[in-house]
Amino acid sequence: MGKKNNALQKGVSGYLYFIDANIFLEIELEDARKEQCKKFFKRIVDDKEKAIISNFIMYSILLELAKKTTIKKAKDFLIFLEAAEIEIFTPSIEIILKALDKMKEYKLDFDDALVVSCMISNKIKKLVSFDKHFDKIKEIERIEPNKI
Predict the structure, then answer these.
(1) CATH number at residue 62
(2) Where do runs of H (alpha helix) occur along the chain?
(3) Cα–Cα distance measured from residue 69 to residue 64, given in angstroms and rounded to the nearest whole number
(4) What pLDDT, in 10s, does the model give residues 42-77?
């Protein structure tokens, strides 16, 4: 599903967005900010903006959807990733090791440290997320969907 690329080389500041799980879950779980997330994804699709997630984020979303909604919603999420041409990045052991260092450096949980490590490794500067704790990470810029 999606474009899988183990050695993504086209990360360019301001061009390629890394998308946090909460952006997808706002829509799928019909939370309060779902409309701004839908508009963001419409822009990604219509403008052919490049976006990426890690396979860890994809699996986390699938688990959440299967637990809280239906298998059909989980399948629809995968179909959306493919249709929107959102890259699915598989981090190497080296990137995962760096994530463990980021956990300690920034006092993050593993999934957030992995996001940061994937972004840094791919030279991606912009993270689309509602999680404000990413604001303390000097190497990246957190942006909410309605600010894009």
Answers:
(1) 3.40.50.1010
(2) 21-28, 34-46, 55-68, 71-84, 93-106, 110-121
(3) 8
(4) 999 998 889 999 999 999 999 999 999 999 999 999
Tokens, residue 66: 């299967």
80-127 pLDDT per residue, tens: 999 999 999 999 999 999 999 999 999 999 999 999 999 999 999 999
Question: How many separate domains does the chain show?
Answer: 1
SS3 126: strand
Question: DSSP label at 2?
Answer: -
CA dist 76 and 18 (Å) reads: 20
Tokens of 101: 């260092």
Residue 18 has pLDDT above 90, yes or no: yes
Q: Which domain holds residue 74?
A: 3-147
β-pairing, 126-128 vs 87-89, is: unpaired
